[in-house]
Amino acid sequence: MVELGQSKAEAKQGNKQTTLPEYAGYKAAKIEPFGCFSDSGGEIPSDRYLTEMLERAVEAEEADADQHTSLILMDQGSLDDSHKITKHIASYGGIRMYAGMLTVQSKFEIRQQLLALTMGHEECTVLMEGIANSMRKYGHSEPEVFFSDNPSKDKSLILSAFPSLGKGLAPMAAAHGLKELAIPASVKISTLTSISDVERLVGCIVSPLLDINRPAAHVLVSVDAEWNLSRTVGCSLLQVAPHDMPEQIFLIPLHKLIQLPPALLLLLSSDRVFKIGSKIKGDLTRLKKQFDQLSGVEFATIDLKDCASERGLLKRGEKGTLDSMCEKFLGAYMEKEDSVRKSNEWERSPLSQAHTKYAALDVYGSRLLYERLAETPRLDVITFSTRPGTLVGILTHQGGDIAAYGTIAIDQPPRFASVFVKTKSNTRLLIDITSIVKPAAGALLHYSTTKRQAKLTKTKAGLFTFDELSRRRENKSAAPAGFSIVSQVCDLIHDQRLNTSSVPQLSNTSPSPPAQTPPDLSRSSSPVQSPPVDGDEEEEDTDSGEEWEMEDEGVNLEFGGDIDENEERDEVLMTLMEDLGIGGSKEGIPLPTTASETEELIEALKKLVAARGDPNVPPLEFTKIKKDLFHAFQMIPLSTTHGMRATFLRMLRDHILVWDPVIRAKIDTVCQKEFKLSFDQMLLKKPRWIARRCPRYVPAPSILVPTIQLVYDRCGNAKDAKTKLPLFSKKAWTKANAVLELAREGFLSDIVGVVLYEEAGRDKYGLMRFWCCRGTGMLEGGPHGDIYQKFGALNASPRLTLACLTDHRTRYNLQEFICQSFAKHRFGVNWDYHHNLGFINRTAFLLNYLSEHIPGADAYRFWTNGDLYERTTETFGICKLPTSLISRLGMRAYDDTSTPRVKLNSSNDWLRRRQGVALPILPPSTVAARQFYFKKLPTFFSAKTSGGKLTFKLEEFAVSWNHTADGVERVYITPELLSAYGKVWDRVNNQRATEDLVSEGLSELKISTTVIQHPANTFPTFITGARQIPFDPTSAALLFPQDERPSSLSISVSNSNPLPHVPSRNVASQPTLSFNSSNPSLQPDLNTQLGVNSAAGGSGLRRPERIAQAPQAQADSPVLPASTPVDNSSQPGPPPKKKPRVRRLSWEDKPPLLPASLLGTVWEVLKRS
After folding, report:
1. How distant, in Å, are the alpha carbons of 18, 22, 24, 25, 31 from that of 28?
2. Residues 373/379/381/385 CA torsion (nearest 10 deg)
3. pLDDT at 931 over 50
4. DSSP 8-state secondary structure symbol assigned to residue 793
5. How confident is the model at residue 581 (pLDDT cuts 50, 70, 90)?
């Protein structure tokens, strides 16, 4: 055993550190195994007793475990939330209690675990803040990088705890070639600190309104407001950028004003002053609550998003924030830090430079954006008098999605297909359909008029779908799609498909590529989407019967840890980064057809790699929250039978992960000498062996993007020799482009200066092995895989689950990598020591305290003693709910006075204390709770959606439930628990309803079951028989019934397998076994089994090691039944009166198990010896 703090080399040299028991000469008494109940009086503990014993034992040491975990250094982190684990653990009455388990890991140790009740980030935010507080308290620096399988979702959560990860980064928009939108030096930013300044300068803005000669004059001003994070009413600062004065921006500190000056009041309230901005109505509403002078005022506003939509420049549902529209229409990004906006510095005087720039940039960008949008004419609203032939889109309903496109028909008859066209209010038009977007959507005015027609329609409302209308004869027309419909005017919009591609660009803000943008290796105008070629557009999903995977034998993309290849693909990962707005050309990228083109491609690649310069000089870094490589590549769905799949994965790996050339050369030399294989051949044969010994580097986006695109272009359209289908379907192209965008925005590239490979010792060939810390592989293949395998069948309660998780976390951190100093990580050996953290801490303290008198303190030189630090306030596993969540769900926080009407049992009382609420949060478990669920269920259904489905207002139901919870009939509940209970009930209800449909058949089966299982039926006698001689494989020994033994167990042994010579031993010292054939019980006596005696010549029988190595005979001997006659004449002497005490084999000195065919022969040899 390697002692604490002892290196592996010292252990090999035999320099074993003296332990305290050895030093004191103390020998501990032998403790019987856990399963031995010899002193229990025949009583066997119940499962409830054992459960409570484990819970109390772990809870007694929980504080030490939490303290030890809180002190773990986390120079880099990985985060993963598993929704699969909580399906099997911490259930209550068979209902899933927790939405998921969030785990945070350092390089190798579990740093935090949380069983989350809700799907939101509120609980997780408290967890991450607890980690950050502990790191500051114990003097640890914040992590340099964080890995996640979904960085876009987890970014805000991670940055809220570790803001340093968001500092010193280039804006994400710079990755797409956009330049910064900067305020020119000619623009003057003035802060109006006095009322006289406000009256004078704002008066200049509104002066056109006071000119009686210009009654129709109007003023355009870009307006925005900011306020302190702690301010609940009103605004702190108002920014004004008059369009008639482009060189001026005014900042007005509203928090200093009790009343609005007349000029400012006129600017805000006049209907001839148009206030322009993004979400401007929200800012003005806050002003109205701050100043009574604005009460009842209707503001004249122009919202920039509405302005773009009215011109057809924004698609329905497209993002319309100020930042995104500046990037889209101005080709520039606004560099603004979120920490500046969310601060309490807006009422500071004077404003800091960062706050001044932030405030002025908003109104400056708004003015430029409006001027750009105004260059595009506004689309007319569709009316009854709109010109025939106008291209229109037909909505599913007013404000809904587009269901079809068409043109206003030239002829507008009074009636068409039994539907009135001309009405008194002139609100309907006949539309010739040109294309259908949603075939299953219903046309609002075309519904069935008879019961027979209603049965033929596919919608519950009786509406004919667009697909059904296209096949009806009475609707046929000369339109391209072949039919017409009648639509309400309010359900029509202009066809915007032709207007979104021609957006003008400002000449002074046109996008310019960053300095590190590489040449395009694909020689195409667009670096993204390459569609299928040769008319294969309609062949998508023809391979749907096959399984889609990423793992391939011999192809390994990342080796950070063991990944469960059979684990189901997370649906969130498959949809990650789909909404990136990726465009692309509609033409495939041509392959090089001549040798000269190939040479040009190679030369371009060489220039690209050479242009990166010094790899130690950091390039532009867009994010420090990285995407796990394995999950990124797993996004691309590939057919497992496609002939190009394995080659594509290898090419993609080699273009993304760059091998260390020096170490690669050393490995190649060893492989050539030892295995007669080259590096590449060994990589194909044993990829994990290579990856463990050769570090790899993921280059910057400037290199990564064109190389990935090059692999896509050359392999994506490659057709399988059998199926003739391309490697990439339409869906695969979409996912592949999403991966390309991840690479472009820096989510895949390594950060310069961050260590991702740590040395793990040399192998027998002299090659250094490395631990890879990149990604979440160590987390998912380590703790999560471990928990899923060990806890999968436990079905434990919340309290038992927490006890098991605490024990698992402690053992995992100790046994796997204890403080990055012990066991496998530091010394390459298994942890062979106890897991009592309190005892380790006390021992380390005493040895250090008494180091002047007793040696041994050096054994704990790497141990972080939690007893020497302030106790942690972090909680693990089941944590207190945030105050905001408790308030939002209508609960009361726990305190000593929040006692329910009746006393809760110990488990529920423990649970509510852990959750921090007055009553525990549990699914419906009482009859009254279930009755309340079904009684109130219809009350919380909302109106039907556009798809005809009812939506369930879960949060409102939970609030109503919690307000009336009393702890007797009902306790607290969450929307997720209501949903989980509803799913269980729906499944059971569906099962019973299905059984009712075949009730007659089930009744017959029950009768037939009674006939088959009737007790009068004859049962065959050959099924049962006498018990055979048992064999205990754990001790490699036969177990004979007491006082009985067979006359002969010998079998014939082949001459080709002679028995080894067995030295003779003293017969008197041999144990004698008896076999009583008259004993029907045949109960084994553990004291008579064959074993190894600890002392030479003792009372036990010691079998030579070479006997166990005897070759196995070709034919096994049949085991004799108990009724076999026994001949005792061959026994050497009378049996001893007292049975010898025989020691079992320990696991260290057990020989290999003897073959069953040799056991009888060995027994005969031992008798003769």
Report:
1. 16, 11, 11, 10, 9
2. 150
3. yes
4. T
5. very low
- For 831-881, how does the pLDDT look when each residue is reduced to its tens digit (9 = 90+)? 556 778 888 888 888 888 887 777 777 777 778 888 899 999 998 988 889
Q: What secondary structure letter does DSSP report for 1041?
A: B
Tell me which range, 333-337, 832-836, 932-936, is most confidently predicted by mean pLDDT.
Answer: 932-936
Any idea what DSSP says for residue 168?
A: S
pLDDT at 1131 (0 to 100): 44
193-225 b/e with 16+ CB inside 10 Å = b?
eebeebeebbbebbeebeeeeeeeeebbbbbbb
φ, ψ at 147 (rounded to 5°): -110, 145
Q: How far apart are CA 183 and CA 690, in angstroms?
A: 53
pLDDT in tens, 222-255: 999 999 988 888 999 999 999 999 999 999 999 8
Q: Are 328 and 376 in contact (CB under 8 A)?
A: no
Find the distance separating the first CA and the last CA of the chain, reported in whole Å.
Answer: 38
Q: Give the total residue count for the chain.
A: 1169
Name the DSSP class of 560: S
Do residues 537 and 741 make contact, with C-beta atoms less than 8 angstroms apart?
no
Q: Can you give the pLDDT at residue 1096?
A: 37
Per the structure block, which two tokens stand in for 792?
């999968």
CB crowding 415-444: b at 16 or more within 10 Å, else e = ebbebebeeeeeebbbbbbbebebeebbbb
Q: How many CB atoms lie within 10 A of CB 888?
A: 16
Is the distance from CB of 470 to CB of 481 less than 8 angstroms? Answer: yes
Indicate whether this model's pTM tops 0.85. no
Which is it for the CA torsion 621, 624, 630, 632, positive or negative?
A: negative
Which whole number is the average pLDDT over 881-907? 82
Residue 770 CA neighbour count, 13 Å, CB half: 19
Q: What angle do CA 1156, 1158, 1159 make, to 5 degrees?
A: 70
Distances (CA, A) of 690 to 674, 679, 756: 14, 8, 17
Nearest to 797 by CA among 643, 646, 907, 944: 907
Q: Which of 1102, 1106, 1108 is nearest to 1144 (CA)?
A: 1102
The alpha-helical segments, DSSP class H, found in 686-833 are 687-691, 701-715, 730-744, 777-779, 785-791, 798-815, 823-827
Does the structure show a pLDDT above 80 at 434?
yes
Pairwise CA distance, residues 442 & 395, whole Å: 10
Task: Read off the tokens for 422.
Answer: 């001309």
In whole angstroms, give the CA distance from residue 861 to residue 6: 9
**More reliable by pLDDT, 509 or 690:** 690
Q: How far is CA 696 from CA 656, 745, 772, in A?
A: 9, 20, 9
3-state secondary structure 1070-1106: CCCCCECCCCCCCCECHHHCCCCCCCCCCCCCCCCHH
1077 and 1142 Cβ atoms separated by less than 8 Å: no
Q: Which of 96, 66, 57 is nearest to 800 (CA)?
A: 57
For residue 134, what pLDDT is reported?
93
What pairing do the DSSP bridges indicate for beta strands 1037-1038 and 1031-1032? antiparallel
Eight-class DSSP state of 99: S
pLDDT tens-digit series, residues 547-568: 333 333 333 443 333 333 333 3
Distance CA 1169, CA 1166 (A): 5
Within a 10 A sphere around the Cβ of 137, how many other Cβ atoms? 15
CA distance 413 to 37: 95
Angle between helices 906-915 and 798-815 (to 10 degrees): 60
CA distances from 832 to 132, 822, 1037 (A): 32, 11, 28
Integer Cα distance of 244 and 204 in angstroms: 10
